[in-house]
Amino acid sequence: MRRNSLGTLLHHVHVSGPLSRAALAERMGVNRSTILALTADLAAAGLVHEGPPAGTTGAGRPSLVVRPESERFWVLAFDVAVDRLVAARVGLGGTILARRERQRARAGVDLETVVGTLAGLGRELVAAAPGGSVCAGVGASYCGMIRPGDGMVRYGPEMGWVDQAFGAELAAALGLGLPVAVGNEAHLGALAEFQRGAGAGSPDLIYLHGDVGVGGGILVGGKLLGGEGGYGCEVGHMLVNPFGGRPCLCGSRGCLEAETGEYALLDAAGRTGGAIGAEAVRAVVGDAAAGDPVAAAAVAAIGDWLGIGVANLINLFNPGVVIFGGMLRDVYRGAAPQVAARIAEHAMPVSRERARLRVSALAADTTLIGAAELGFTGLLSDPLSHSPGQAQPDPAAAAGSCHPA
Amino acid sequence: MRRNSLGTLLHHVHVSGPLSRAALAERMGVNRSTILALTADLAAAGLVHEGPPAGTTGAGRPSLVVRPESERFWVLAFDVAVDRLVAARVGLGGTILARRERQRARAGVDLETVVGTLAGLGRELVAAAPGGSVCAGVGASYCGMIRPGDGMVRYGPEMGWVDQAFGAELAAALGLGLPVAVGNEAHLGALAEFQRGAGAGSPDLIYLHGDVGVGGGILVGGKLLGGEGGYGCEVGHMLVNPFGGRPCLCGSRGCLEAETGEYALLDAAGRTGGAIGAEAVRAVVGDAAAGDPVAAAAVAAIGDWLGIGVANLINLFNPGVVIFGGMLRDVYRGAAPQVAARIAEHAMPVSRERARLRVSALAADTTLIGAAELGFTGLLSDPLSHSPGQAQPDPAAAAGSCHPA
């Protein structure tokens, strides 16, 4: 009970930032003396501190607010994206404290290379962290299908990975004595946008993440749709074009990602063999907006397929919000009329009446922030087990800092 | 707490039939003396009785089993299906005690006619019920989109209904002093098959109900996928054929139900304008199996579209089981090779590895049983509030029987 209450209070300040005791009491449905006691415990463990609200001047006596100790407790977050490998130190409260990034080659990058690069970046971040600060966990986002529990990549089409022990290998290479929690990038994006982005307050949420492929993260009643084995939400391989569709990395043809991914757009714009990546996508969308007819036709064509996919999802999930992330942010901005027209044509009026369409609020950091949230799970479920002031059964897991073993 | 335990015990014997005290103790994780006390309360209220197991002979002293009082506590269940209107008295335990059925015309049947017919059948069933027996609730299944809470039909394409107060009108016409809980037929079918059919033990379940249209009921983690407004699961209007697809009752073209519903099959078999309904569908599938090449090609073509729809659902939901109900039972039996081939081609291997394909075990009664389960919800959540031996705040709701007011 008490552990739950401590976790709930810490979760509130982690997600919402500084909150007064009165606000916490109202959110948690308990009285202020309970908040006082919980806050005292968390403060003693170094997880929060109380102080005047920002912008307070000397006059009067402002009511204090509870703040997360963002510099002191942090997680390592990793993002294996289609064009880069990212590592960050993210503080309690969700602030990115420091980051390192490496471009990566498309396709054919092996497990050893990815793990070696990420572990190197991670160790740099740990070495540069302030003395006495605490690494509370490690989370990673990967652009593929992840087995829950152990972070095994069951299928990573863009890299050609099948059954690669990514989570375990990265944990071993980091040598921090901490497990690495791994999630699919779009799943994590959905959770991040729900927690602190364009989907806040919408427990029935669809997040679509586009780059070379198109991934989906779907929340049903505030929970990630897992399915029997945790592999649900594979929106990218929904067949939308059954007649001569474009070939897909999965081996099939006409999948949503084959028709709406980066290469579909660049090919439709007549830019096959030219520049690739997020900048190239933005260039097509920008040229379309500036009146280039070939670029405009390409954006419209991709928007039509995207709209069909979204209409199908609206029929199936009756969502409160659909969020476009990754390069689909740019595509949606350019193709909103086509997407709206397809939804009007193919989604049932009752199903679509409450569905808002948004671009991701966390922008390029959506999946990285999602990975950080995964890393914070343990701390938020049992705050005092991670604090340096408490007796620790496992010294490696909470040694006051997490410099390499 | 006690109310919950009483409801849980009653739920177990309702779903599983006679159970020994030992079996109940094990399922509920409590000791036998608790089961004894709970059983005594439920028996005093007339909801269960204890006796020797079925098939017991005189020799020895068998351990007693707890049985639901199926004849004494029952619900009225209604099913507004595409070709008929059904009313049934369904006993605690799920047994259909009595039923009445009327064929109905296709399309254009108005609310007043449907409500009048169903209420008449319902009153007949109530009048014929044994004296002293108790009507514990009323549930109804409707082939359209239903607003949660009040049973408003938001959209019933086959009948052309928009915003018709079906639940309230049926309750008024019955005059039993009981509300009518209404659900979409495929939603209720999914719950029924999960509770006592082909999906038992599979909390991630997809139920597809076919007739003129194709409805879906999808369970995610054992709960019906509702979405923001309760209108999720509209699988029938997933666009599968974006190029010149068949027109759909919803006004669009190429929807899954337009390509796989009854008329699609009959038209493909060259039987446009002939017999319609379940028998006509079975005739096509039967002729296909017997070697009629036109019928075989029709079944295969429908099976291809059905397989595309199922593959998409497997990618999205990673289900443990997909169940074919209504006329899709027959179509799936005839078109299993096409469905399997499309799944192999379009569903990700990781997504489909645990997905079993089954036909509905409750057959033509799936949706009716689902409606009955909806009717039992109140009794199972608070068993003693419905018993005639208890003080009742609302005499109309539990008057010992529910003859028309």
From TrEMBL, chains A, B:
GO MF assignments: kinase activity
Keywords: Kinase, Transferase
Superkingdom of origin organism: Bacteria
Coiled coil region boundaries: none
Biased composition (Low complexity): 388-405
Chain segments carrying region Disordered: 385-405
Pfam families, sorted: ROK
Stored SUPFAM superfamilies: Actin-like ATPase domain, Winged helix' DNA-binding domain
Alphabetical list of InterPro entries matching this protein: ATPase_NBD, ROK, WH-like_DNA-bd_sf, WH_DNA-bd_sf
Signal peptide location: none
Family to which this protein belongs: Belongs to the ROK (NagC/XylR) family.
PANTHER family linked: BIFUNCTIONAL UDP-N-ACETYLGLUCOSAMINE 2-EPIMERASE_N-ACETYLMANNOSAMINE KINASE, ROK (REPRESSOR, ORF, KINASE) FAMILY
Protein name: Sugar kinase
Gene source species: Actinoplanes siamensis
